[in-house]
Design goal:
The complex is a heterodimer of chains A (314) and B (350). Chain A has 314 residues and is of the alpha/beta class. Helices cover 39% and strands 12% of the residues of chain A. Chain B is mostly helical and 350 residues long. Helices cover 72% and strands 1% of the residues of chain B. The chains are: A alpha/beta (314), B mainly alpha (350).
């Protein structure tokens, strides 16, 4: 036992060393790359951007090239008319159609860093999905990085658009997009006021791999409530659900992720007995626009409201 | 006694070192960025003390230097270290347990590491982007904790029973894997990350990582190689060891500690890279025979070369998309390994 203790002590000590090494290096490198230059008073084109993590980055002039490391960021770049600045995107960026004309730098969490460095963009805009080690490598290579990762909410989407706009020196354009998006979302919210609430279940997955939904606290659940529905899965948190509870709730309608094929529901145990399935009140929503904090969120929200209250939006 | 014909080992080592250097240079010159091989060589040589004055890279963009020295080289060195460490540990575990199925992960180290990493993904990474080291730290703690538990279960009055050790390793391994499955179900957002982590990846390796790995793996490997002779004795059975005056129990504990340390350090930074620690020792054994004095150093070099080449493929084959290195080691390793088995079968028939 004594020996084990000694071994453990040695291990913990060596661990502390490892951590010490990592920590000190990170903290040294953390300040934004060009804070000093903000003292030059005569340059008027200079501006600063605070990203989602509170890091302040100074740009001497608006970046003329940008690499986007997330689909929502890419969509925002197109929406604010900055696609001529885009030099790199991820494999997951699939909207708008023309995005495929732009070079990909790999996937979101592990993009190809050497490819990005070779593209030599003036800024890389990324989310927290990207491996932090890779983000650090980019910053160490002298490429400013902006992290755009807001809370899953309508406000979060506005925040993403605002930061991307500020970064590219296109704040006014971004404000226009936010204004249009806000109008779209608020008009849906207003339209469903006073309507009879319907019970809704969101199907993320079903069948042999388990039943998954969007439980209480998820953005999708909040959207269902805002669109005049009652999410029956609000009695659980997280993503897993119990088919027995679903049968018991027997919701008015089902909203489906694209990953949950509607055809299979009539065969699936439990689901085929649901009134909504029998009556065909099953609506597939576009995952991309629904789950990306970008300019298409309003459209997706309207689609959802239309599924819940079909008569309202004719 | 009939004397076995041995290959000339001086030549073998020289050839392996040359191959290693060639693999490193080849890998440093290959990548998704369109830097020509010659230009890569020039960039590399520009940092070599003796010849650096002869090389002028001022005509090349600065990004070339960054790509080769900050992105490619740390990855290459880390692959080299992992390959070396895992292969040597594989030899040790196989020799010590006298079990050809043994590999560095046999005592639940990898499952423990995955559990630790999964916990880190679920609890920590959403907080900030720059908590570098959280995943490796948790993975390391997980690896060491799992091995410690296995050790405590298997030891009896300070003595280690090999079969009990392997069995409890398997048991703890399964337990950790089930817990990981539970975590994946509870937090689907992190599922992809966790699954990718179990396939191993050298992506994102920095010099910082290399600096931490280097001393552990180097010193550990040297200690293990110095024990080659003891391992020879141990692999013939505890009784032989005792009759030769070797404290088998103490020796086993030392080897176990050092090998677990190397494996934990490798795994915590790169994820569980499968197969290297299993096939490299066997493949090398076809060449050197079972004598650990040859088997250990040759495995160390061969493992390093193998993983450097595998990682080069992992980052270039479908560039810019990165493939988990564990996939490459299996896809390349298995056919090679099977061909060795088939060949040795044929040899025995004649």
């Amino acid at each position: 036992m004594k020996k084990t203790l000694i071994i453990l002590t040695v291990l913990i000590a060596s661990l502390a060393l490892i951590m010490g090494g990592c920590q000190s290096d990170t903290s040294e490198a953390t300040p934004a790359p060009s804070l000093e230059s903000s003292q030059a008073p005569e340059v008027t084109t200079e501006y600063t951007v605070t990203d989602s993590q509170g890091t302040v980055v100074t740009f001497e002039e608006a970046p003329s090239t940008v690499v986007s490391l997330a689909p929502n960021i890419t969509e925002i770049i197109f929406a604010i008319g900055a696609e001529d600045k885009l030099v790199g995107r991820t494999d997951w960026c699939n909207y708008p159609e023309t995005v495929f004309d732009y070079a990909s730098v790999g996937n979101i969490d592990q993009p190809d860093v050497e490819k990005i460095i070779e593209l030599n963009p003036d800024v890389v805009i990324l989310t927290e999905m990207t491996m932090q080690e890779l983000a650090l490598q980019l910053r160490d290579a002298g490429i400013p990085i902006i992290v755009v990762d807001e809370e899953d909410s309508f406000e979060g989407a506005y925040g993403c658009i605002r930061i991307v706009g500020e970064t590219l020196g296109l704040s006014e354009k971004a404000d226009d997009v936010i204004f249009a998006l806000t109008k779209e979302i608020e008009s849906v919210k207003t339209a469903v006021i006073g309507l009879e609430k319907k019970t809704v279940y969101y199907v993320m997955g079903y069948g042999e791999y388990g039943d998954f939904t969007a439980g209480k606290g998820t953005f999708i659940s909040e959207m269902i409530a805002a669109a005049g529905g009652i999410n029956v899965a609000d009695d659980t948190e997280g993503w897993a659900y119990d088919i027995e509870k679903l049968v018991e709730h027997n919701p008015d309608l089902l909203l489906l992720s694209m990953w949950a094929p509607a055809e299979g529901l009539t065969e699936a145990t439990g689901y085929k007995a649901l009134t909504a399935v029998i009556e065909g009140k099953v609506y597939t929503l576009d995952d991309d626009s629904l789950q990306r904090l970008g300019p298409r969120l309003g459209e997706a929200f309207a689609e959802m409201a239309k599924a819940i209250h079909p008569d309202l939006f004719e | 006694m009939k004397k076995e014909r041995k290959p000339p080992y001086f030549l073998v080592y020289t050839a392996l070192f040359v191959a290693l250097a060639a693999a490193v240079v080849f890998s440093a010159g290959t990548g998704s960025a369109s830097i020509g091989f010659i230009d890569s060589l020039r960039v590399l040589l520009s940092k070599v003390p003796m010849v650096k004055n002869l090389i002028d890279i001022s005509s090349l963009p600065d990004s070339y230097t960054t790509i080769i020295f900050s992105v490619r080289l740390p990855r290459i060195i880390a692959s080299l270290l992992c390959g070396t460490g895992l292969s040597v540990c594989g030899v040790v575990f196989q020799g010590m347990f006298r079990n050809p199925m043994a590999d560095p992960y046999v005592l639940g180290i990898s499952s423990g590491a995955v559990l630790g990493a999964a916990l880190a993904f679920v609890t920590g990474t959403q907080a900030t982007l720059f908590n570098l080291g959280l995943v490796p730290l948790y993975a390391f703690i997980g690896a060491i904790a799992a091995t410690t538990v296995v050790y405590l279960i298997a030891q009896k009055g300070g003595r280690l029973v090999t079969n009990t050790l392997i069995l409890s390793g398997i048991a703890i391994g399964f337990l950790c894997s089930s817990l990981v499955s539970l975590i994946i179900i509870a937090s689907r957002e992190q599922a992809t990350r966790i699954i990718f982590w179990t396939m191993g990846s050298m992506t994102g390796t920095s010099w910082q990582t290399v600096m931490v790995m280097f001393p552990f793996i180097l010193i550990g490997t040297v200690i293990l190689i110095l024990n080659s002779n003891n391992l020879n004795v141990l692999s013939t059975g505890d009784e032989t060891a005792v009759s030769l005056g070797i404290n088998a129990s103490l020796l086993k504990k030392l080897l176990l500690l050092v090998a677990s340390m190397i494996t934990a350090v490798s795994v915590c930074f790169s994820g569980t890279i499968g197969f290297v620690g299993l096939i490299i020792p066997h493949a090398v054994r076809f060449l050197t025979g079972p004598n650990h004095k040859r088997l250990m150093p040759v495995s160390a070099l061969a493992g390093g070369i193998f993983l450097v080449l595998c990682d080069t493929l992992a980052r270039t084959l479908f560039a810019p998309t990165q493939i988990p290195i564990g996939v490459i080691t299996s896809v390349i390793g298995v056919p090679f390994f099977i061909s060795l088995i088939v060949r040795s079968k044929r040899r025995n028939l004649i």
